[in-house]
Amino acid sequence: MRPHIAVIDDDEKITALLRRSLAFEGYEISTAPDGAEGLKLLSQRQTDLVILDVMMPKMDGWEVCRRLREAGITSPILLLTAKDDVTDRVKGLDLGADDYLVKPFALEELMARVRALLRRRPDKTDEAGHFRYEDLLLDVDGRETLRGDRRIDLTAKEFDLLHLFMQNPKRVLSRDLIMERIWGYDYSGESNVLEVYVAMLRQKLEESGEKRLIQTVRGAGYVLKGEG
């Protein structure tokens, strides 16, 4: 699967340049023209890297960076800015950015930074293509689930739901995002279907007294993480 990169910048020329150049290198690209649209984009799909301009209308890059980290999104962030000031660089790093590039920049340097940041990504799968979180293992190709040594039989939808959580550990997933990914935009069934499936999934995962891994975040959604 191609790495997905989100470019959030109000400069149309830079956005067009990055879209062409990154796509040529084989990356999948999404763009947003300001911070507010960028947050919306990143709430709707998982991304492997965020290229984020600092000076933007509606919401600047500092605030976007802060909100992403508060939401538990751990994707690497590369900040772009016209300000070459130590204070600004330190501010960005303190807010959770991973790297910093001053405009105007050489395209070759940006590409090198992108490659370096993508190499640092934590790989959620092992060599066999299994997703692991604590004592939970998900074999996507074999459609099998293990909690420790215990095999768990899941329905197709339960498996897809757990797969989504395992792809986004420690990230709070909103109800709308989960419904769109698992049931699709055109779902018109019972309104509490997600709550029912989460309850069934928890029951199976905790059947032998194991601790809870799928937590409810009141007013926000659900998150895969250990208690405490």
Structure description:
The protein has helices at 12-24, 35-44, 61-70, 86-94, 107-119, 156-167, 175-182, 193-205, and strands at residues 4-8, 28-32, 49-53, 77-81, 99-102, 130-133, 136-139, 144-147, 150-152, 214-217, 221-224. The protein has 228 residues and is an alpha/beta fold. β10 and β11 form a beta hairpin. α2 (35-44) runs parallel beside α3 (61-70) and α6 packs across α8 (193-205).
Task: Briefly summarize what is shown.
Keywords: DNA-binding, Phosphoprotein, Transcription, Transcription regulation, Two-component regulatory system. This protein has 228 residues and is of the alpha/beta class.
Distance between the termini: 34 Å
Main β-sheet: number of strands, strand sense, barrel status? 5 strands, parallel
Strand ordering within the main sheet: 2-1-3-4-5
Q: So how many helices? A: 8
**Strand portion:** 15-25%
Q: Which percent range fits the helix content? A: 25-40%
Write the element-wise H/E pattern from the N-terminal end onward: EHEHEHEHEHEEEEHHHEE
Question: What sort of overall outline do the alpha carbons produce when their principal axes are compared?
Answer: elongated
Radius of gyration over all CA atoms, rounded: 19 Å
Structural class of the secondary structure composition? Answer: alpha/beta
Q: Which spans of ≥5 residues are poorly predicted at pLDDT below 50? A: none
Number of strands: 11
Mean pLDDT: 86
